[in-house]
Design a protein that fits this description.
mainly alpha; 0% strand
């Protein structure tokens, strides 16, 4: 039946299968198998039911159907998620039959491949491992299959890490690089296994190509340093293989771990200078300059880089290997010597930086190196070559701190040539307390060809602080080269006011000069003050000077006012004198007399007060006569009660000058100054005032004064009044001169009137016509010359008969006053012209 079922092609397996199943399950299996896939479900069922696992295993391998494999290998879960134990046991038996019998018996690679895929799809790594071990390790036609070996190792990596190492040792035909990468992945981290793979395949028996061997060694080193971080083991491995790329890989790893010294040795062994930048940086950070020198020398053999030469110089400097440094610098190199020199200098490597700066002729920095090495002479020489003000200044200050004053002065002279740096020199010298040397330095600076104003100015300031006796001489000699404002401030701070005044005057700052001399007595000089006061711009200073002189130098006040006579307001000055005190007015009397010609009210009043106080009535009278611009009524009122007669007379005179006739006459009456009364009345030209005075003389029996009043006031006295008073008082003889003169005047007036009213003669009319034509015709250049004709007989004033012109005040009394008699008053009992009884000599010529 089995052969029939196998060979017969004309039956339906689904129909015959159930029938055979009741007879012999194996026959049913053959019938279902004949169905070529149509009866797979029935075949699987009968196999599981009757334990035909080996047959089923062979069928599955032969069919190479992944879906069929999935039906038998996939675990089925119950309704509550539990796995059916019976089915699980059947599945395990099937797998065992596949592993033990079906697959090892197969000689088809496709069958093996499909089976492996099915196991992988069913996620059975453990069973897959067993399966692959059975195929590969226990000897089969597929033992050397690379894919199977790869699969075995990968499955072990995934399912059982413990077996990976043994598989790596036993298997030789797998993809080492790919497997190793999977081993070191983050999901597996099988670093030892990866290292073993690389080491194994780096051997000549596995890899014949030298480059591939080295590549494997580098990868092995990468596992040690990148993943295992075991640098000691890596170093041991590098020593074992002794290949340059391996050393290079180790060196990079050591750099990453800050093991600069070990990295340098590794790179030297590798003869690899590619990481020279990082090596230099790490070496500087670790300060292993001696160790880095061999590396830099090695690197320079293949590379010509600025950094290498620069770092080599720096390493020589840090190790104080000056001989090699000098040799290297003087030889060919591409180092940035300026930068490395600055770096050495900033780190205090002055000997090295000196060699570097010297090689590039950087004398400015070279000088600074000499300073730090206390080689001051060499520093000055270098500064001279540099000829740079900042270098000169630094060398100067360094020499000064080292008490090398001569060298400091040499440098200082070069520094003070530049105005902007003068203050720095002064500050440094002063801070160190070397004032004498500072003064000496600037004194030497005066002789420089390019000495500027700052040198002269600063020396002047220094003199004010330290050598005050030289200040004045310096200011006089070098005034034109000084900054006056700065020197003046220095002089004032040092209380040297005389030089300050001198500078103010020379700089045409007269206001400041006067102010200084006023505030500081030590600076006062009268001649200089007078010279300055007339040049001030602010007029207020002049009035302050007046107060200053009054307070401090009163004996020189008159001289001051002589100078200021044309510049000040004299009224204001007089008010200052009044506010100062009576003594000030007395002091200013000479000054006020000098300026009284300007006829100022304040001056006149002040002088008049002084004259009154000094009882100098003559000067007062002269002052009143010449200068009347003052309050005359107030003065007259003040003098009216004065105890001295002459001052009361002046009061009357002042009233008369102001036409206060009654007050003047009353004062004169009280003092029996009859002439003053008569003169006042005559000057008033008031008939009532004169008649009142005449009646007063009659009442007091002053006959002579009555006669003198008639004589003096002739033009203003009515004849009837004079005759009446003479008749009433029996003064016939005293009124006779008045009457005679009055009749003469009347006669002369009548004659003049007659001549004016008579008609002109005919000849005179013709002469007048001829005269007119003569003027028109140009006789005598157009002027008619008349002699001895047309006149009035040579009468005075051109009036006929000697008559006085109207309005000339009557009789001429110019001879009334006599020498030796005040104001022309005659002694008592005497009248003018020496006539007894006061009668004037009669004029008898009619």
């Amino acid at each position: 039946p089995k052969a029939f079922l196998t060979n017969n092609m004309f039956y339906e397996p689904k129909v015959l299968g159930p029938f055979c199943e009741s007879l012999d399950p194996s026959l049913a299996f053959v019938a279902y198998k004949k169905g070529a896939g149509e009866c797979d479900d029935e075949l699987i069922k009968i196999s599981f039911t009757h334990g035909l696992f080996r047959d089923l295993a062979r069928y599955l391998v032969e069919r190479q159907d992944l879906e069929l494999w999935a039906k038998v290998l996939t675990k089925e879960e119950g309704e509550e998620g539990d796995i059916d134990a019976e089915k699980e046991a059947q599945r395990r038996q099937l797998i065992d039959q596949v592993v033990e019998w079906a697959l090892p018996e197969s000689e088809s690679a496709d069958e093996v491949s499909c089976t492996v895929k099915a196991f992988m799809a069913a996620d059975l790594p453990g069973e897959l491992i067993v399966l692959l071990e059975r195929i590969i390790l226990q000897g089969s036609d597929f033992s050397d299959n690379k894919n199977l070996q790869n699969l075995l190792i990968l499955t072990a990596i995934r399912a059982d890490h413990t077996k990976v190492a043994s598989y790596i040792d036993q298997l030789d035909n797998f993809d080492a690089k790919d497997i190793a990468l999977i081993c070191v992945s983050e999901s597996h981290m099988l670093y030892e296994e990866a290292f073993t793979i690389y080491v194994k395949f780096a051997r000549p028996e596995h890899t014949t190509d030298k480059d591939e061997q080295i590549e494997m060694q580098v990868l092995a080193m990468g596992v040690l340093v990148d993943f295992m971080k075991d640098l000691d083991r890596a170093k041991t491995f590098a020593n074992q293989v002794d290949e340059k790329p391996v050393w290079s890989k180790l060196g990079n790893a050591q750099l990453e771990e800050k093991m600069a010294a070990d990295a340098i040795l590794s790179f030297i062994s590798a003869e690899d200078a590619s990481e020279y930048v990082r090596v230099c940086a790490e070496a500087n950070e670790a300060e292993i300059y001696a160790e880095v020198i061999p590396f830099l020398k090695m690197a320079r053999k293949n590379l010509q880089e600025n950094l290498l030469d620069t770092e080599l110089i720096y390493a020589y400097a840090k190790t104080n290997n000056l001989t090699d440094l000098e040799k290297f610098v003087n030889g060919p190199n591409v180092a940035n010597i300026q930068n490395i020199g600055d770096r050495c200098f900033s780190e205090g490597l002055y000997n090295a930086s000196k060699l570097l700066f010297k090689s590039i002729n950087n004398n400015s920095k070279l000088a600074l190196c000499h300073i730090h090495l206390e080689e001051y002479r060499e520093a000055v020489a270098a500064a001279s070559s540099a000829n740079n003000v900042s270098t000169w200044k630094q060398v100067c200050f360094a020499c000064l701190k080292a008490s090398e004053f001569r060298l400091a002065a040499t440098c200082g002279l070069e520094v003070i040539k530049y105005p902007d740096h003068v203050d720095d020199v002064v500050t440094t010298y002063s801070d160190l307390g070397h004032f004498d040397h500072l003064v000496s330095l600037f004194e030497q600076g005066l002789g420089l060809e390019d000495a500027h104003i700052g040198i002269f100015t600063e020396l002047g300031i220094l003199y004010t602080k330290h050598v005050p006796e030289k200040v004045m001489e310096h200011c006089k000699v070098f005034f034109s080269k000084l900054n006056v404002s700065k020197v003046v401030r220095a002089c004032e701070r040092a209380r040297l006011f005389k030089p300050a005044v001198y500078l103010y005057m020379q700089d045409k700052q007269a206001d400041s000069a006067v102010k200084t001399m006023s505030e500081h007595s030590s600076a006062f000089d009268n001649d200089l003050f007078l010279d300055a006061i007339v040049k001030v711009r602010n007029a207020e200073i002049m009035y302050k000077a007046v107060s200053f002189y009054l307070t401090m130098h009163p004996m020189l006040f008159t001289r001051l006012m002589e100078v200021l006579e044309d510049l000040v307001d004299h009224s204001r000055v007089v008010n200052q004198l009044r506010r100062t005190g009576d003594w000030a007015l007395q002091l200013g009397q000479a000054y006020m007399k000098t300026i009284q010609k300007e006829n100022l009210s304040a001056v006149n009043e002040a002088l008049n007060e002084l004259y009154i106080e000094d009882e100098d009535y003559e000067s007062l009278r002269k002052s009143i006569d010449k200068f009347q611009n003052f309050n005359m009524i107030a003065l007259a009122s003040k003098l009216a009660t004065h105890e001295l007669l002459e001052f009361r007379r002046i009061s009357a005179y002042v009233y008369r000058c102001n036409k206060k006739w009654s007050q003047s006459i009353e004062l004169s009456k009280n003092d029996r100054m009859w002439k003053d009364c008569i003169d006042t009345a005559n000057e008033s030209a008031d008939e009532e005032t004169i008649e009142e005075l005449l009646r007063f003389f009659c009442a007091t029996s002053e006959k002579e004064c009555f006669c003198a009043a008639l004589y003096t006031c002739f033009s203003h006295v009515r004849p009837d009044v004079a005759v009446e008073l003479g008749w009433l008082n029996g003064y016939h003889h005293f009124i006779m001169p008045f009457l005679v003169q009055n009749m003469r005047q009347t006669y002369e007036r009548l004659q003049v009137l007659e001549k004016r009213t008579q008609p002109p003669k005919e000849e005179d009319a013709q002469d007048q016509i001829a005269q007119t034509y003569g003027q028109l015709g140009g006789f005598g250049n157009g002027m008619l010359m008349l002699e001895n004709g047309g006149g009035m007989g040579g009468m005075p004033g051109g009036m006929p008969g000697g008559m006085m012109p109207p309005g000339q005040g009557g009789i001429d009394m110019s001879g009334f006053g006599q020498a030796g008699v005040p104001n022309g008053m005659p002694p008592n009992g005497m009248m003018p012209n020496g006539m007894p009884g006061g009668m004037p000599p009669p004029n008898m010529s009619m």
